[in-house]
Amino acid sequence: LLARGLQRRLAAAWQLSCWLLGLGMLASLLKGLDFEEALLLGAVLLALGTARAAFYRPSRLIDERFTGPWLAAVLGVVALSLFVGLLAADTHYSNDLWWTFATAADVPRTLRASLTVLLLAGMLLAWHLLRPGRVPPHAPAQLDLERAGRALASSDDSLANAALTGDKRLLFDSGSDGFVMYQVMGRSWIALGDPVGPAERLAPLAWAFRERVDRADGRCIFYQVGAAHLPLYVDMGLTLAKLG
Predict the structure, then answer these.
(1) How far is C-alpha 139 from the chain's CA centre?
(2) How far apart are CA 99 and CA 110, in angstroms?
(3) pLDDT tens digits, residue range 5-51?
(4) pTM above 0.70, yes or no
């Protein structure tokens, strides 16, 4: 579940992952001084800690939309971990196992942890099934060309002036006059060029557009972008294609 947030560069996912890794190290030591597990979790925590700057997006983890393949992967991991836990235990089931607490009681601990994970996975699946349907594309009654003009005044990209033709939809940044100009055709949401606005707001703008596309179950496309921002689009999980 946290892997989805880490892939999207969410600061909340990074913080929660660090806390859970730390608690996992503590639990490994408390259950029987399992130093091997604690060291392994510590190595992952160290690697994640050195990459703090890569998780820069102040978004809530619960806002992330899980696609069908992601949900299938989550449920597959849960089912596989339960199967491996029961296979490794090689113990006949008994109701008394649920109430056994000891540092070496691996089977009861596995059963209780699996039940907790299954309940959380079920809640996640139900929450996604009960979410509202597809969000329609944002289509304002009239484009805010004056606001776009303020952003264009600080842009040195001539392609950005195509926003003034009035035939595109604009997604504005809440913290500035930056915007993404785009149009929708079928399931494809096609942004023309890079986001326009202050340099420090380009990445949040691109991610905001990507999230809006995800909520509408569409395909996110940035057309005719510059080479300077290609790493950003790779981080967003998009595929680069050179045309012409």
Answers:
(1) 26
(2) 12
(3) 888 788 888 888 999 999 999 988 887 777 888 899 999 999 998 98
(4) no
